[in-house]
Design brief:
The protein is mainly beta. The chain contains four helices and 40 strands.
Length: 604
């Protein structure tokens, strides 16, 4: 274990800030690496190392695992269609720099200030051992740094995608090639090691990755010091013997039996600082926002000192996969960002001269302190040559209507006695294959497009079950995610940027004990898509009682990839599955479930 700083600590009174001064520290901006600035392919080495950082000016230093010693890691900026080769080198010393603790789930009606996720520390006996039902998650503090980096949202061959089992120990490197054959966008990179992603990312292993192209440059958007990454996350901190904040990270989660509720914490960080401020000119700024939290959803609103909305000065110009066709206003009640989702925002501060504005989180499960950060707008006038065009991009590429389909069911915790939500890969049954219903592992859906009831059987759910999704290279595939109950899941498909086709709401009739539907899912109601959902996406939320279909072309890279829920606890607990993309000509010689080795490829 790494020793924690012995610097005097701060007492932690009750919330919402636990003694920390809001907006004390300036926003830290990670350094920028431009490995392709000279117009050619480039090589880059990024070192994962153990480092220390002060998350707030009134806290001791925190021990972290970081890329190149920065929390978040450096922003990597590349040019479109220029190859970047990266050696992600593991030089981390010591073991996991925090403890993971289970706290009994409080009863319904517990005041927000008493919820475990909203308080630092955990109850201890005089000897330091956990008390009042709290238990340490065995083995977490002994975990070595076993790391593999995934460039989230990137089109790259499978060997460079960050396969979860291909992690490396200290002294070894992961080598990747990123062709960057995508329109200008803001991706992000983070650790993706099997079963420990939640803890490796919590320790600090994530950063931003920007792709540039000529079209974006010609638009005249805010740039230079007026283009700022905002990587938002939440964390918890441990406390000492008298309740003081020690600065040490804490992974504290409520538990129901053996099931742990996904992590959320009381402290909101932007670029590694708790509740920072940023001094800005009365001019337009571009903010590249990423939700890097484990499980926290944010509903972002810009307000003034009196709490009045200033959302009118904000326009969203991009999402996960790049620029939207045109700027759009924020939704009336704020912009929701699920874990891994991104938003490209332009904020015009000219009408806020000599005032302070706050970015807040108004989500239903926001921490006791809803503020995220503060903007301090200077007085006077500032030179601003940027502009916000009416048209930003040509829009998503039209995909043909004839396409293969993948069906995925998201089933609630308790199914088959499992403590966590599950991801079911589904195969549609022919009429003669349908068993007497209802039946375990069988779900039915009345397709609103045709009125036909379709019957599916679970064919896989664990990550190490046999691969059942095979996709022909250059195929267009519709993925259908059906939430049969339980919490919302931000579903992420590696390799592609997709287009959301439809979001439909229904009332599921899923029986937890049976492990299947009692009656077909029906009564679907279309949910209008938000303006920003019409752009290129790689992550989208599927709530319980929702069917979301997305369309993507698998047109460049090949190999074995993953898709999963991006609540990192859910991912580590099994909501992740592989899929294969291979040439259509190869498929006829590659037997897999539902095919014959000498039959032509028939789709996923």
């Amino acid at each position: 274990m790494v020793e924690i700083s012995t610097r005097p600590v701060v007492a932690a009174p009750d919330g919402p800030t636990f003694g920390l001064t809001k907006f004390l520290d300036p926003l830290s901006v990670p350094p920028v690496l431009r490995p392709t600035a000279h117009g050619c392919d480039a090589d880059l080495t990024i070192r994962a190392i153990t480092s220390r950082a002060r998350l707030h000016g009134e806290l001791p230093e925190t021990v972290l695992w970081t890329y190149d010693g920065h929390f978040p890691g450096p922003t990597i900026e590349v040019r479109r269609d220029r190859m970047l080769r990266v050696a992600w080198t593991n030089e981390v010393t010591g073991t996991m720099p925090f403890a993971a603790v289970r706290i009994p789930q409080p009863p319904a009606g517990t005041p927000p200030e008493d919820l475990p996720a909203n308080r630092p520390g955990y109850p201890r006996n005089p000897d330091g051992s956990p008390a009042d039902g709290a238990t340490l998650v065995d083995g977490v503090t002994e975990l070595p740094a076993w790391l593999v980096t995934h460039l989230h949202g990137a089109d790259a061959n499978a060997g460079s995608d960050g396969w979860a089992h291909n992690a490396v120990l200290r002294g070894h490197s992961q080598l990747t090639e990123h062709p960057n054959r995508q329109p200008a966008t803001a991706l992000w990179y983070h650790d993706h090691a099997m079963a420990v992603t939640r803890w490796n990312v919590h320790a600090g292993l994530f950063g931003a990755y920007w792709i540039r192209d000529d079209r974006e440059r010609a638009l005249g958007l805010p740039d230079g010091e007026r283009e700022v990454p905002l990587l938002i996350c939440d964390r918890n901190l441990d406390t000492g013997a008298t309740g003081e904040l020690t600065g040490r990270l804490l992974f504290k989660v409520p538990a129901i039996g053996t099931a742990m509720i996904p992590f959320t914490g009381p402290f909101t960080l932007v670029n590694g600082t708790i509740w920072p401020h940023l001094e800005v000119d009365p001019a337009a700024y571009r903010f590249r926002v990423v939700n890097t939290s484990n499980a926290r959803f944010y509903r972002l609103n810009l307000i003034d000192a009196d709490g009045a909305s200033e959302n009118a000065v904000v326009r969203q110009i991009g999402t996960d996969g790049g620029l939207l066709p045109r700027p759009v206003p924020l939704p009336a009640d704020g912009l929701v960002l699920a874990p891994a989702e991104r938003a490209d925002l332009v904020v015009d501060f000219r009408r806020a001269r000599d005032r302070s504005l706050r970015l807040t989180n108004t989500a239903a499960d926001a921490p006791l302190e809803p503020d995220v950060m503060q903007f301090r707008v200077r007085g006077g006038r500032a030179r601003d040559t940027s502009r916000l065009p009416d048209v930003l991009s040509a829009g998503p590429v039209h995909l043909p209507g004839d396409h293969d389909q993948v069906w995925v069911g998201l089933v609630p915790p308790g199914t088959g006695g499992e403590a966590h939500p599950q991801l079911w890969e589904l195969r549609e049954l022919a009429e003669h294959e349908i068993p007497p219903l209802p039946a375990a592992d069988v779900v039915q859906v009345t397709d609103p497009r045709t009125g036909r009831t379709r019957t599916f059987r679970r064919v896989a759910s664990l990550f190490d079950d046999a691969v059942s999704v095979f996709i022909a290279h250059d195929a267009v595939v519709e993925w259908n995610f059906i939430g049969f109950g339980g919490p919302p899941h931000p579903m992420h498909i590696h390799l592609v940027q997709f287009q959301i086709q439809a979001r439909r709401r229904f009332t599921p009739d899923f029986d937890l004990q049976l492990g299947g539907t009692r009656t077909p899912a029906a009564g679907f109601t279309d949910v209008p898509l938000e303006d920003f959902e019409r752009g290129r996406k790689d992550t989208t939320v599927v709530d319980g009682g929702e069917w979301v279909s997305v369309l993507a072309r698998f047109g460049e890279s090949t190999g074995q990839f993953m898709y999963h829920c991006h609540i990192l606890d859910h991912e580590d607990e099994g909501m992740m599955r592989p899929f294969v993309v291979h040439p259509r000509e190869i498929a006829r010689f590659h037997p897999h479930p539902g095919s014959h080795p000498h039959e032509p490829y028939r789709g996923a």
